Amino acid sequence: MAKKFLSAAAAALFVSASLVTVAAPAQAAEAPAATASSSTEATARYDLKPAYTVSALKAPGYAGSVAIHAENVGTDRYFGEFPVVSFKVEVKTASGPKGVDRLITPSWYNGAYVRDLGFNTETSTRTFIVTLSNPVKAGESQLIGSLSFGDGLTSEGRLTNYIEVTQVGRIAGDTSSGNDQRVDSRQATLTDFGNPNKGIF
Asked: Which of 65, 76, 112, 145 is the most exposed place for a label (fewest CB within 10 A)?
């Protein structure tokens, strides 16, 4: 009887240990779900990110247009009374003669307004301010302006340019600045079909 009792006890102990071993991975598998939840909670309520699109046929240094978008990557609708929300757009020289301006004609869309602040010969930079007046819905990529470049050929050589955009005016509650400061067209430009582009115009 003692042997039978010991055998039954040993079997019970083995089954209990097996259940503990199986339960451990199940607890570990729950960890990624908590991480995903934390990531979702970390998304900002108010957050605009500049982006660029251009025709795949636009050759660097030649005539053509570049579109500038404000992407709402936050969770809430983004709106500020005019002229609260604004972006500084700087067109800089990538190659060619320094201190030489290039014909650039701005256009604006969806209630935005573009102001030309002129050309700085010392830094070879033409600066624009784009001011929004319409809301940008969550998840929307809103076209706010475009720059139409003239031919870059000059008597001193052919100019090519790139663009940097910085958000300089934001609504209360927008504390995210990691994706809207000096956004370089060489890293943030897509073609009209969504393919990466070199971002030199």
From this structure: 76
Confidence of residue 41 (pLDDT cuts 50, 70, 90): very low
Torsion (CA) 188, 190, 195, 197 in degrees, nearest 10: -70
pLDDT tens digit sequence for 104-132: 999 999 999 999 999 999 999 999 999 99
What's this model's pTM, rounded to 2 decimal places? 0.79
- Which one, of 201, 97, 102, lies nearest residue 156 by Cα? 97
CATH class of 48-191: mainly beta
Q: In sequence order, what DSSP letters do the residues of 123-191 get, joined into one string?
A: TTEEEEEEE--S-B-TT-EEEEEEEEE---EETTEE-EEEEEEEEEE--TT----TTSSSEEHHHHEEE
Lowest mean pLDDT of 25-34, 51-60, 190-199, name the range. Answer: 25-34
Q: Is 100 exposed, middle or buried (0-12, 13-18, 19+ CB in 10 A)?
A: middle
Q: CB of 117 within 8 A of CB of 128? A: yes
